[in-house]
């Protein structure tokens, strides 16, 4: 396909005679006025040397339809698509800064000559650039069905709608999803419902040429792939002191637990839909805001600890079987019998949902990965692209929103 596209461009460039539109072919001689050839317009204009990359590539035909379009940069085809009337072709994404593009387009009309327009242009280089600083999941990681996609940028984003429009999520089982901005450097993708298990998901940030702030553009695109594993979900009931783990719809483990003693807000386990975030064996846990000798001070190494929030909550091992299944005596974590905690530790993937009920403290949506605490309506309110579209604001043309 790549070689065919390259050969087609070469042929059209020769036929076009250095980017001048010409009529190709001839018809029968009649006394009627010959039909006017179609008009082809290319933006950015051919021979430009400082074209704006953020506006993409647009080719239009007037008085006819586009029959052939080929665009290359660095020997690679430029992704794009025709509209239903075959009169407008747009690149899917913005253009690379400081790059040369070769373009050729043919337009035809019934009973008339064809028009071929071909040539080159160059985009202006970026004064400053931005890109991804970190991602979750990690490339190649296998995750749970509740896993979000978290992108951290290396500088603040002002034009959030333009950046969001350049983000693409594709999965083996397409699902409705949306991005939600959590500050100027982080955007999070969440599906409306949990991922379908056992599938691959590809995330591409088409950032090259995207305008992020005054004088700041993306320099390169970034892609990573992760896998959604088996469906494992857990429910913790702090009133009955029980935890049930289901895997692919079947009960995999029942555990007696002890949760936060709830004598203070700090010692109250949060209720809501948590996600497993990371784990360690052991994890050093130190009482926050206290020094050695203060009442309530502790400094412990805890085995088989799976983190579920940023406020210090874990599901972990503890040898206090006298309380497990009977009383809540912890500082806010959920503890279980050492052998069962070890099983949960070994079976957990990042992004496994853990729903906790029965306490008077709700998990905040931005406490760790508490994103499922927001209703879908609240979640999509955090999309800059949807907000811009609703307000009728202009966003760069020719770009495809990244919905899986």
Automatic annotation (TrEMBL):
Pfam families: Big_10 (PF17964), YkuD (PF03734). Residues 232-357 form the L,D-TPase catalytic domain. Coiled coil: none annotated. InterPro entries: Big_10, LD-transpeptidase, LD_TPept_cat_dom, Transpep_catalytic_dom. Residues 1-31 form the signal peptide. The keyword rRNA processing does not apply. Keywords: Acyltransferase, Cell shape, Cell wall biogenesis/degradation, Peptidoglycan synthesis, Signal, Transferase. Gene3D superfamilies: 2.60.40.3710, 2.60.40.3780, L,D-transpeptidase catalytic domain-like. Pathway: Cell wall biogenesis; peptidoglycan biosynthesis. The active site is at residues 316, 333. PANTHER family: L,D-TRANSPEPTIDASE, L,D-TRANSPEPTIDASE YCIB-RELATED. This is Ig-like domain-containing protein.
